[in-house]
Inverse folding.
């Protein structure tokens, strides 16, 4: 058994490496695979991988990040985007499965977002460490509940138990949650206007052919940020928002890699093989490129 496992690993990573090279050639970009939570503790490793990828001969001007994540910290995403943008002129977000919460914020910093009908993004409910810094918890749920209790208090409808909850709230933590929400929205607005909308030069539907102003780009970015951070719209932190809903309800431009057979097969072979391996091994966080591992 001890001799077959390394051989099996080699077969798996040979398959992943071949698929990675295919995706790079099809999309004309370097490629990284990021799996796991987006935490500040992952930043040094992420930086090192990006630097090593850039130091090799044959570096391209664009990088694609194949992202599978339940979310994480907006602060981590901000720094990771700065690292990517320092080294590459273009950044493509590739979502074969799901990039939730902070993963969605990460995607909004991309010049292009690649998905297919089975891919998902999520509401941008920022996740913050709990008091013991053990797990990440969604901040908007706390804020929404506090607003609900305050509204009940104003209307003299609050119960004694609910009033006790309000009294026991840690105001410093509450402010931290508010700041996390504000940061998430501000990052999304900035990156959409600066990167995703950079080639949006003329209107296509309203007043077709007229020039799109910077103010109009900012307004569209704010509209998308507001909708993605609206818990009343999505009802769940874990709500999976598919490509068509993003296109229709948020009017986001998404590249459908599922329409191109070569892209679909290469991206799925790359993602499914590597993700399946990581899940079987119980690995919670992984950054991969064949030139580094």
């Amino acid at each position: 058994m001890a001799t077959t496992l390394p051989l099996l690993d080699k077969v798996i990573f040979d398959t992943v490496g071949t698929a990675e090279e295919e995706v790079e050639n099809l999309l004309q970009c370097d490629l990284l695979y990021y799996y796991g939570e987006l935490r500040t503790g992952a930043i040094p490793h992420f930086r090192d991988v990006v630097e090593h990828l850039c130091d090799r001969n044959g570096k391209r001007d664009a990088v694609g990040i194949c992202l599978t994540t339940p979310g994480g910290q907006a602060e981590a995403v901000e720094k990771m985007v700065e690292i990517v943008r320092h080294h590459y002129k273009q950044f493509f977000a590739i979502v074969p499965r799901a990039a939730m919460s902070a993963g969605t914020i990460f995607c909004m910093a991309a010049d292009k977002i690649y998905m297919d009908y089975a891919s998902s993004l999520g509401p941008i409910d920022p996740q913050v460490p709990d008091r013991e810094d053990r797990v990440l918890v969604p901040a908007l749920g706390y804020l929404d509940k506090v607003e609900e209790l305050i509204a009940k208090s104003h209307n003299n409808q609050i119960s004694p138990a609910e009033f006790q909850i309000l009294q026991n709230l840690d105001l410093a933590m509450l402010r931290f949650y508010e700041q996390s929400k504000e940061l998430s929205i501000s990052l999304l607005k900035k990156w959409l206007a600066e990167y995703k909308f950079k080639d949006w030069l003329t209107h296509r539907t309203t007043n077709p052919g007229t020039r799109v102003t910077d103010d109009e780009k900012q307004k569209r970015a704010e509209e998308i940020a507001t909708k993605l951070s609206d818990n009343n719209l999505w009802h769940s932190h874990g709500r999976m928002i598919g490509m068509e809903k993003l296109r229709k309800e948020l009017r986001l431009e998404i590249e459908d890699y599922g329409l191109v057979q070569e892209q679909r097969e290469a991206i799925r072979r790359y993602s499914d093989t590597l993700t399946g391996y990581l899940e079987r091994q119980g690995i919670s966080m992984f950054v991969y490129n064949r030139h580094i591992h």
Observations:
- The chain has one domain: 4-288.
- The longest helix spans residues 171-196.
- The chain is about 55% helix and 15% strand.
- The radius of gyration is 21 Å.
